[in-house]
Amino acid sequence: MDLKILWAAVTNLHGREYFAAAVVKAENTVKFTIRYAEGIDESMRILFKGKQYDISSIDNIKYANKFIEIKAMEVDNSG
After folding, report:
1. Model-level pTM?
2. 35 - beta bridge partners?
3. Parallel, antiparallel, or unpaired for β 67-74 and 29-35?
4. Which is a Pfam family this sequence falls into (predicted)?
């Protein structure tokens, strides 16, 4: 069931963020930046370009309720 359809700026992690994600064996960790939206939590998944991502962290940037940064790991559906 779709909860929300949102626009996002999407970037792959690199540098320090990439190495921090690698510690938890994140094969493909992506950062989604969206406008603030209530009700988003780590139990949800993101569908982006036909791939599913498990949310690993949510950051309400500066607690300003303007933008949210979501880090998510690609779900391996290969079997």
Report:
1. 0.78
2. 67
3. antiparallel
4. Phage_HCP
Convert the chain into a string of H (helix), E (strand) and C (coil): CCCCCCCCEEEECCHHHHHHHHHCCCCCEEEEEEECCCCCCCCCEEEECCEEEEEEEEEEHHHCCCEEEEEEEECCCCC
What is the token pair recorded at 21?
Answer: 């994600």
Tell me the per-residue pLDDT of 58-75, one tens digit each, with 9 for 90 and over. 999 999 999 999 999 998
Alpha-carbon distance values, 37 to 29, 43, 49, 78 (Å): 21, 15, 21, 31
**Residue carrying the six token digits 């064996």:** 25
